[in-house]
Amino acid sequence: MVHRLDSQNMRSMKISELAKNAGVGVSTVRFYEREGLLPKPETRVGSGYREYTSKDLDRLRLIVAAKRQRFPLALIKTCLAALEQEEPCQEIAGLVEGRIRDIDRELADLQNLRLHLAAQLRAWKLGTLPKAQCLCSILETDAQLPSGETKP
Fold it and tell me: How far from each other are the two terminal CA atoms of the chain, in whole angstroms?
């Protein structure tokens, strides 16, 4: 079975070309290598530069696409490992379903935050907040709450 990460053209390139072709910086490529998302190339050219292949570029583009969709690095790593398996689709579908649930929770949290801020802003405009001189009082009120808790 041929996976998306396999490439017909195994042309080599330096890290700067790899980064440019994927639309990221060289430091991003090195970061993904350190995190274990992108394997460090074993091949080095005569001058000691790392030599990357089209397969590495395909993998990097997949990582970049997953980051654009706000997948956390740990989940991207799991997806990449699943792609190396014979039948990855079922496992990846489960991972995506879990990510959708995470996004739904994040959306609910953001909606609650929006409602809270809108209520605080209305109260400030009406002059019903203590110390209603400025919007900083909203932050002062929230700063007194335990971490992660917002006033209804």
Answer: 54
| Distance separating alpha carbons of residues 82 and 62, to the nearest angstrom | 13
* CATH number where 24 lies: 1.10.1660.10
Residue 124 lies in a domain: no
Q: Which one is predicted more confidently, 135 or 91?
A: 91
Residue 4, pLDDT score: 41
117 backbone dihedrals φ, ψ, rounded to 5°: -65, -40
Residue located via tokens 């080599």: 12
Does residue 98 lie in a domain region? no
In the predicted model, what is the mean pLDDT of residues 48-59?
Answer: 89
Can you tell me the distance from the alpha carbon of 139 to that of 47, in angstroms, rounded to the nearest whole number?
A: 55
**What is the signed CA dihedral for 98, 101, 105, 107, rounded to 10 degrees?**
120
Split into its structural domains, the chain has a count of 1
Burial class of 29 by CB neighbour count within 10 A (0 to 12, 13 to 18, 19+)? buried
Answer yes or no: are the C-beta atoms of 88 and 102 closer than 8 Å: no
Q: Containing domain of residue 18, as a range?
A: 1-73
Judge whether 142 lies within some domain.
no
